[in-house]
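Changelog note: in this version the structure field was regenerated for every chain. One regenerated record is shown below for reference.
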Amino acid sequence: MMDNRNAKKIVPPNKKNNSAIVGFILSLAGLISCGLTAVPAFVLCVIGVRREKHKKFAWIGLVVSCIGFCILLLPCACLLSFISNFIKGPSGYETTLNGNDFVAISAGWSHTLALRSDGSIVGWGDNRWGMADPPDGNDFTAIAAGTYFGLALKSDGSIVGWGWNVFGQTNVPDGNDFIAIATGPGSDHGLALKSDGSIVGWGNQGPRSLSE
């Protein structure tokens, strides 16, 4: 009887075994396509590693497909983190202030401002662009919270602004003859009433935002 224990496995010559080559090609394509083919490349390379033919290509393909996974997953993770942070924002929305010396309050998109009777301003909530960090001082008479910014009127008739300034909404006009200010939680512009009855506006000049 023939002893087959030491016999080598014979692969029929007509049996195709190109999964490693295909996986290797897909793994390279995964790098070019930002990892989109990394999953099928990984599967095919695993099949190729278990066989004799093209095993070196299979191992290289496994490494490259893993890199493809990273290329695919890392941007996705960063995007999901950004969306989550943008929608939810940081903690602090539930903050309430102690005291009974507040005379005015204004709510922005995700932050809040309050004016105390001593002329100082306090802010809380989302502070990613500094909108909940009002300027120091005790000479403020009015406040207005915008989308991601804040405005305040001082006792000398001047205006100050802080926070997000991508549209120039904190580039307040010069002068000491202002008597009122206005903006809103969905606004990227500001308005001010002057002592002579005229109105000035600044910031985002979207459709009809600042039109007369």
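Spot check on this record: The CA atoms of residues 45 and 58 lie 5 Å apart. DSSP finds three helices and nine strands in the chain.
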